[in-house]
Every structure is written in C-alpha cells, then in structure tokens.
Amino acid sequence: MNAARNGALFSGLLVLAAIAFIAALASGSADVTFSESIDALRGAAPDHIRSLVMDLRLPRAMTAFAVGGLLAVAGVLMQVLLRNPLAEPYILGSSGGAAVAALLAMMFGMGSLVIDLSAFGGAMAATLLVFAIAHGTGSWAPARLLLTGVVLAAGFSAATTMLLALSPDQNLRGMLFWLMGDLSFAFDPSRCLWLLAILLVGGTASARHLNVLSRGELQAAIVGLPVKGFRYLIFSAAALATALSVTTVGVIGFIGLVIPHLIRLVAGSDHRIVLPASALAGGTLLVIADTLARTLMAPRQLPVGALTAAIGVPLFLILMSRSRQGRYR
Length: 329
Prior knowledge:
78% of the residues lie in helices and 0% in strands. By secondary structure, the protein is mostly helical.
C-alpha cells in the first residue's frame, strides 16, 4: 500500500514538473506554442524560437526548479535539526544577513557580481554568528539555537528597514524585488543544480539517520549515531543550500516551511521519500510561481515570493483539512 502510494506521489510530481516546465518555456511576452517549445528542446525549431527557449526561458526555469528544491530540502533538514515543525531555512538569520549585505552593496552602486558575493557572505556570516552565539562554551540545544536565530533575524529585519528608508528612490524598486524574490537575472542554474543533486544523494543515503534523529537525540545515541557530528553536517548542508538560494534569486519564503509538511501529510515521515519528494514539489512550485509572475500582468513582473504563498497556502490548508478527516495517514 505504501509503495503504491509513494509511486503515485512521485509519478504525479514528475508529471506536474514536466507540465510546469513546458508551460514556462511556452509562456512569455513572445508567443511560443507548446509544440514549438518541445521542438526547441529537440533542436528542430527555428533559430529565433530555439534561442528564446534555450538561452532565456530554459535556464530561468531550471534555476527556479533548483532553488525551489534547495529551499524545500533545507526546510526538511532544519526541521530535523531543530525538531520543530515551524523551522524553515531562514530561521537562522541567513536571509536577514544576506539582505543587509546585498542592500548595502546596492546602496553603493555595486555591480551584480559584488551584490551576489555580498549576499552569500552575509548569509553565511549570519548563520555562523547564530551558531557561535547559541553554542557558547558548551553544547547547544535546538531551542537555544532557534531562539538565537529568531532574535538575530529580528535585528536584521530592523537593519533592512533602515537601509530601505535611507536608500535613494531610484534604488528602491530593485531592492524590494530582491527582498521578495526575483528571477529576472537568474540564467546560470548549474551551481544550484549541482548542490541540489549532492544534497539529495547524500540526504537519501543517510535517510535512516535522519529518521532516527528526528525522534530524539537520546534514541539516536542509543542506536550508535554520532549525534554531534551528524548535527554539524545537517547544519552545514542547510546553511549552504539557503545561502546559495538567497544569493541566486533573493528571499523567497514559504517553500521551505510548508512543502515538507505537505509531503509528510501525503507520504508520511520517512526521509527516503520526504527529501526527494520535497525537492520535486518545491522546485515545481517555484517554476509555476515564476511563470505566473512574469505572465499574469505582462510586461510587468510580480514578486515571485508572494505568488509561492498564494499558490501553496490554499493547497496546504486543503490537505490539512483532509488529514483531519483521516483521509491521509
């Protein structure tokens, strides 16, 4: 029964991902039919169609899929690490640190490369700062790490508000779109795809350890799991995935918090299923949201982070209501 349900889940997610990709390639300010999009992938379309699809839309869609997958996987790892269903990738202040560093670079008129490097450095520095403060001179507890992250995230939020208030008017639109997620210049998916593949392979291989650790550190220690080292590994993987995601497309919320819950409602809590299914669902959701963001009010683009919530929240609430009725176990 479980095997059939999991097979149906992955089949459905793969079909949905394929449909989302084809829709992303065919949608935009220039009209491209579904058949022309498929021909472009096969190399049989005219040059102008093939250039539009292969050089612009496909890299953007692949970046959206990779980032959505990274955020979902990071959310799964953070919920295991902190043993808290409300944990999400940005809970340790990485988004706030990235935002402060990136906005400072924008205020000084730096180029995109400097902004990306600043965002990545800010995200990693904020995460390490949270960990260093929570660790102190002894062993850290999940509750202490979580509380430290929440407090520092509030401080970063205040700093971000101050930077927006002090920024020139001509910079505000770009800053706000970065804070709400923007894939307009996301045309290099290779780094995110490689990291996603590495995390999926490593996470699936260690899924049994994740299952044990999610039930408590004492039980994990009893069965021989090196708890301290494994926690450091989870922390590092989640921090790197979050930092690279924020650097690539800015801050996109919701995915890392709700997608893991949605998958657990359908498939249970076995991380051999939860990790890859979350990656597929998170990536597909961001591809759909980005396609809608650039087509609903074209040529204007909507903030993709707002659309991920608009799509996912009703779906999550529907599944929650069904789970209360015992339709998902």
